[in-house]
Amino acid sequence: MVRTHDYQNTMNLRALVDEMEVDAYFVNDRTLASCLEEADVIIFESTTAGFDALLTGKPSIFFNPYDGNIFFKENKGAFTTILKSGEIRSKLEQILNDKSIRNRYSLEGYKFALNYLGVEKSNNYRRTVKIIKDYLK
Known about the structure:
Elements: H1 11-20, H2 32-38, E1 42-44, H3 49-55, E2 60-63, E3 80-82, H4 88-97, H5 99-116, H6 125-136
Parallel strand pairs: 1-2, 2-3
């Protein structure tokens, strides 16, 4: 399943789906929260949806083959990074086939998002997480 921003050009993503030869479909008529809940692994570009994915505890992949820039240079093993379209199949298969890798990315991704958003550094983190989770519902 592929969900994009409302105004995002889907041409690159359609090309990626074609290259991977997978049965994928676009679901922009659904909420981000419902897509995240159903997905096993989240692939995101430089978007806040990446934080949503990390905060749900789903293993995530940062994908940017367009200019090769790493959005989060210090991700501390929170997610895998794909900077070339040719890497996506092998890295996705690695995550899908290895439960220990999925679990590590899930835990480290969640901790990274909390820290990046500053919610680990104060006693208000529970309130912030609740606001985000309520918004995702």
